[in-house]
Amino acid sequence: MENLFTYIGPALLQMGSLSVVIAIILGVTFGVILGALPGFGSSQSLALLFPLTFAMPADVAIIFFLAVYSAAEYGGSIPAILIRTPGTPAQSVTVLDGYAMAQKGYPNRALKISLISGVLGGLTSTIIFILVGGWIASIALEFGPGEMFALGIFGLSVIGSFFGRDPARGFLATGLGLFLATVGASNFGGMRFTFDQAFLTDGIPLVVVIIAFLAGPESLRLLINHRKTVEKPKTVLQVEKKSDDKFPLSYVRRLIPTWLRCSLIGTAIGAIPGAGASIGSLIAYGEERRWSKRPNEEFGTGLPEGIAAPETANNAVVAGTLVPSLTLGIPGSGSAAILLSVLISKGIVPGPLLFGQEPLLITTIFVGLIFINLWLLALGLIYTRGFAYISNIARRILGPLVFILILLGTYAYANYAAHVMMVIVLSLLAYWMVKVDIPVVPVVLAFVMGPIIEINLSRALTIHAGDLSVVMTRPITVFILLMALATFVYSAVGSFRERKQSERLTSQNEIKE
Amino acid sequence: MLQKLRTLTLPRRRSLLVTTIVLLITAAYCFYLATQLPRSILPGYPGDGFFPRITLTVILFFGAIVLVREYLQPDPVMTDTPEVPKPGKDTGDDDMSGPIRLDIVEAVTIAVLSIGYMFLMPRLGMEITTSIFMFLLFLPRVLQPWPKAAVISAIGAILTTGFVYLAFVIGLKVPLPLAFLPRFLGQY
Predict the structure, then answer these.
(1) Which of A27, A156, A215, A266 could form a disulfide with A64 if both were Cys (CB 3.0 to 4.6 A apart)?
(2) DSSP label at B11?
(3) In a domain, A240, yes or no
(4) CB-based burial of residue A454 (10 Å sphere; 0-12 exposed, 13-18 middle, 19+ buried)?
(5) A51 domain residue, yes or no
(6) DSSP class of residue A185?
(7) Distance between CA atoms of B120 and B122, rounded to whole angstroms?
(8) A-B Cβ pairs (cutoff 8 Å, strict)
(9) Does A466 touch chain B (CB under 8 A)?
């Protein structure tokens, strides 16, 4: 911890460099724009912008990505409040009170509450990240390859259990991601599943999997499903604004408990792999209704707490996601997987050693997140209304534009046409998986974690002369593996109960009919 | 009628079953290949096939669960001929409880156009291929009478090509195969 604080000075100096300033300004602007587009969540936005980081140094790239990530989580709230169209699923709850408040003649007040809450959520979770992250990393430093392998298994158990409709499909997708990661040369020089094709020798690049499985299905959905879609023109709410349509200072005192509660909820949800901003904002809204002094009936009628709670939580998720990603190397969401990929592509290995080996980078991330949130606040205070019009772009026109970015973005990675072909094939596969309701995010997460798990397992086995029982019976390993088993059993039982309940409801409905 | 012909309507559960079976067969074949990989001479290292065998076991195990469960589940009540959405109407996305609709002509067109784009780019240059590619993608999406649609699509395609040049060639310094633009807009 002390070590990290000694780097605050150099990190602040880096914030003053032109490249970092440009990265923050562009990242926040792109993030708000993409976040305001319907259907574009933070992971799709990051996947689409991934190629832009190829030309950036590691610290600038990670700051750019965090700026996009934070801004995309906020950007969706603008159309949610002004035109009742949430940009990302996380803003579905913001619509309830945000749009209601705007309808009452307070659109600017609603936007400011959303902005200030988002920024405060981001700042609080950043502080929690640096305090908790350092502590977790120092504990994880004691872990050997066996424990790191078990930790990877735990990560996979969470990913498989909680993504998608049921755990079986989640684990099927997880297995697919792990398998794709084994294609190409192994760590010990052997060739696997290359089928004598030269372009598979180096394996499937991470950037290909990220673009194909995160941005690919969305772009194909826009191209195929919405080829002839004509959206009803959505007008930005035109109401007679009240003279006091601004953020009253009295709200600061009123909203402090909400901001604190929901920052903690958002950070905690962000740290849990598989949860994400949508669940964070839903839980925060539910908890706010429970803890708030306001009567429950007032929620949904334009209550400031109803906007502040989900917005604080979904921005707090960003720094929360960094805790398991950077300290343990477990990406909790598609966005976190892309952040890790940026680090890996720059030769930086995420995990407990990162805090010791790259203290300047960690401090730069910490300071950068603060600057990003402040810039988001400045941009939001100056101008937000215009971003609402972005969600009016016709999806049928958006499709070709996103698709060309995907093709050329992939080409930009290594100037290799075979990578583009891989993206086309894997995007079609991912699009089909979405159609048959097999989740695609676990494929990416497992692809990121696969090599980490394999290398730790191989190391542990080599150290213990190939005796798997010695590797698996170390106390911490046993504890982590039991946690993984408990997660799996919990999700399987939950899914079984849910299925039975839905069958019972269906049969009851049939009897009634 | 034309819309009905180009749209493939598939029962959701059967599609999942077929997808899972294909995945299981592929996984079983790859498992066989993994067993054929040479054993390691390094003491303790389990060999290159060890980890792939674990991952493929995960696919085979959970794929079998999905298969058996979906197979045993009673058929949902579904109308035989689901309504095909009219063109021009907001078709939206699939209703996850109904059948899967796939515009097969559009999917194949996009795949063929993309492969053709990547094949022709080194031969004709980025400017010509991107303009043609974008024009062909925009044309059916600009819902205007055809001469107007062609003009709007052409303008859109040229503007996109210009943006691609500025962003990728000038900005990101990607060595895309170029035919003539550097002469007019500068080079990286």
Answers:
(1) A27
(2) -
(3) no
(4) buried
(5) yes
(6) E
(7) 6
(8) 191
(9) yes
Evaluate whether A375 touches A31 at the Cβ level (below 8 Å).
Answer: no
Q: How many CB atoms lie within 10 A of CB A110?
A: 30
Residue A180 lies in a domain: yes
Q: Specify if A238 maps to a domain.
A: no
CA angle (A84 as vertex; A80, A87 as ends), nearest 5: 40
Contacts of residue A113, Cβ cutoff 8 Å, sequence gap at least 6: A101, A247, A251, A255, A304, A307, A308, A311
Alpha carbons A333 and A327: distance in angstroms, whole number: 15
Predicted structure pTM score: 0.83
Confidence of residue B133 (pLDDT cuts 50, 70, 90): very high
- Min CA distance, A481 vs chain B (Å)? 16
Query: Phi first, then psi: what are they for B86, rounded to 5°?
Result: -75, 145
In this structure, what token pair is assigned to residue B56?
């493929």
A390 close to B (CB below 8 A): no
CA distance A76 to A111: 11
Q: What's the confidence (pLDDT) of residue B152?
A: 94
Determine whether the interchain pair B46/A174 forms a contact, defined as Cβ–Cβ distance below 8 Å.
no
pLDDT tens-digit series, residues A140-186: 777 888 888 888 888 888 888 877 678 899 999 999 999 999 999 88
**Interface test mutation site (partner B, options A191, A224, A401, max chain B beta carbons within 10 A):** A224
Residues of B in contact with A232 (CB under 8 A): 90
pLDDT at residue A169 in the model: 92
Domain count, chain A: 1
Whole-angstrom distance, CA of residue A279 vs CA of residue A270: 9
Q: Write down the number of H helices and E strands in chain B.
A: 7, 2
Q: Are B179 and B164 in contact (CB under 8 A)?
A: no
Contact predicate A195/B77, CB 8 Å: no
- Residue range B15-25, pLDDT digits in tens: 999 999 999 99
CA distance A285 to chain B (A): 26
Structural domain range at position A152: 2-230+248-512
* pLDDT tens by residue, A309-335: 999 998 888 888 888 888 888 887 788
Reported in sequence order, the residue ranges of chain B that DSSP labels E, i.e. its strands, are 7-10, 100-103
In angstroms, the CA B29 to CA A83 distance is 52
B44 to A230: CB separation less than 8 angstroms, yes or no: no
Residue A128 sits at the chain B interface (C-beta within 8 Å): no
| Contact: A404, B130; criterion CB under 8 Å | yes
Average pLDDT over residues A76-90: 75
